[in-house]
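User: Hi! I'm working on a homework problem where we have to compare a predicted structure to a textbook description. Could you give me the structure for the chain below?
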Amino acid sequence: MEAYRELSLLWSLFHILILFMLLYRSRYSRRKAFLLTGITMIPLIILNLVGVAVYGAVFMGKVFILTCTLPSLLFFWFISEDKKGRFFFTFCLADTVALWIIAVTNVADYYFGGGQCILMLIGRLVLFPLIEWAAVCYLRKPYLELQESVTKGWGIFAGMTALYYILLAVFANYPIIITQRPQEVPAFLLILVLMPMTYAIIFTSLYRQLLLYRRQQSECILQEQKNALEAQLENQQQIRRMKHDMKGHTVTLLGLLAAGKLQEAQEYLNDVSTEMDSLIGQFCSNPYVNAIFVQYSQKFEEIQADFRQDIWIGDEELPYMDLCRILSNGLENAYDELKELDMEEREVSVKMKYSHDYLVIRIKNRCRRGLHVEKGTLPPSSKGGSEHGFGLRTVKESAERLGGDMLCYTEDSNFVLDVMVRVKNM
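Assistant: Happy to help. Predicted structure tokens:
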């Protein structure tokens, strides 16, 4: 009987780790995270099993929070990418679900299995893989996306989950194990029923936030496409006006040439060429990318910002949808930031050039001195204010979709956005 109990406990402890690692985001690579977890957690699990063998399951159940929960909390907090509400909610979620399975199988074995621990072992052998299967198939992908996209509101959920964990742990083991307090079993069963219902409410709220984030992304993409099409339409209208004006220019040039005024004709032709470039906004030969620069050159001109370009691309075929999305979001973030600065500080530059199989884009703009962004992190999203944020997530997603990456940071009162996208062998 004790062998069944210890085997079921070992199975439970390992599957708590598996469930948590399916849902959390490590700041290390997957291989390194698994290695560190094995080095740290396997000895901790063994020590707890030795404690069960020496002191008994009842005693270890009372001190489990101190001997296993808190040490594992500190370890995973150290290797986790998230340090606040998202991490604590995920940790408490995995532990609470595991504790719920342990409590249910324990009560079921006592009342229906005669306390022989066989039903306990079978229940845990079935329920833990079933929960993990459901997490992989239905929860993991949207949950990781939710952690990536939603940065606020996790604290209250983490607090609720932590309270549920403490409630289950205390109610199940203090002052003695719940199966030895039959008068309190109905209340304990109500808690076991209430907990999944509460989690259903929590995940419904989180899923609605995810849907809201996706809708914001779709609206942002549609707005970018609308802006690009409007810029292209404006270019076409300007070109049609220029074609109409060319008749007058041709008449003038013919008159100057007929009069033998070659110098005047050359100067007039140079003026016409300059006017054509200014009207079209010929920043590069690619019409889609050029339309983005036309649009934002006008916006930067309206706020009297110094807009510099160093663009080394031609009219070659490029993944213009994602590329325009990257440029428009990066330039929009720069525009939002420059509006908040003094007139003499409004500077922004764009560089685009090829490096082997990649197109490298750098957007650099002046920013507030209080803004500080470390390399490898994203600033908080606050579209209502002037902070870089939401659009950068779209930039990162577009870059990764093109086999590249994005990096942003601040240095010397400048915000720098570096993007690499693969453009060869696509």
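For your comparison, note the following. The mean pLDDT is 83. The beta strands are 306-311, 347-355, 358-366, 405-411, 414-422. Good luck with the assignment!
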